[in-house]
Design brief:
The protein has 283 residues and is α/β, with parallel strands linked by helices. The protein has 11 helices and 14 strands. It has an 8-stranded mixed sheet with strand order 5-4-3-2-1-12-13-14. Strands 8-7-6-9-11-10 form a 6-stranded mixed sheet. The longest helix is centred in the C-terminal third of the chain and has 16 residues.
Length: 283
Amino acid sequence: MCAVPPRVVASDLDGTLLRSDGTVDPRSRRALRLAEEAGALVVLCTARPMRWMAPLAEALGHSGIAICDNGAVLWDLYTESVLDAFPLEPALTRDVVRLLAEAIPGCAWAVERTTGYGREPHYVSRWPTPENSAIAAVERLIEEPSVKLMLRHDELLADELLGRAADVVGELAELTHSNSGDGLLEISAAGISKASTLARVCEQRGVRSEEVIAFGDMPNDLAMLRWAGHAIAVAGAHPDVLAAADEITASNDEAGVAQVLERVFSDEVLRPIARRKRAARGA
C-alpha cells in the first residue's frame, strides 16, 4: 500500500461494496464519508445501468460519481445525469451479433442505451423489465447505439461464454461478465471498461494510477484492479480476481471495503501527514 492515503477510491458494487441484499450497510457509508472528508474522490464502478443508480445515490448522499455499464457511461450521482458515454456503434454491433450467433447457437439478446433498455422476446431477464422497454428482435434493438450489449444463454455459464466468445470476436469488442453463476455475457465497445473510464476520470483530475485504490470481485473488475496502484479483492471473489489482487479483505457482507478504508484513512495515518504538510508550509 502507498505511504500516503489514495486520492481516488474506486469500488465495484454488487458482491463488493453492497451486501448480498443489495444495500449499503451503515459502516460502509461511514467509511466512504471518511474517505471523502480526507479529500479522496469516491468512484462507484459497476456493471449496473444508470437507471439502477437512484437508490444508491440517495443512500450515499448524492456525492461522488459512478462508472456504469462496465465503463460505457460516466454518471453524476449529485445531478443524476450523464457526464459522458462510450457506446457500441450499430455497424460494429451487427458484426458482433452475427459472429456470436453463428458460433454460439441459442443466444438471446438485450441492450442498454442511455435512453432505456431493450430485449428480445425470449430473453429471460433476472430483473423486471422496465416500462417502455423495447421488445423486438436483436436486429431492431441494435439499430441505435447501445452502451452495453448482453448475450444470455440457458445452457452455458459466464466463464465458458466468455472463453468461447473471445475466440470469435477477438478485438472487435470488450467482453466480460459480472456473475460466474449466471449465463450472461456483457459486451462493450472495444477498449471500454471500468479501467478505461476510471483512467479518464483520473487523468482529468491529475491523479496517477499509483494514487488509486480499487476494490472488486468479478472478471469485469480485472482491468480496473490491474490499473490501480493498489488492488483489493473481497473474500469469495472470482479466482482470477483473487490472483490479481495485492490484498484480500473480508467479504461484502462483512464490510470488507469499509475495513480497508477505516485503516487507510484512520487518524493515525492522516494526522502525521497533516503535521508534515503544516511543517512544510512553515519552512
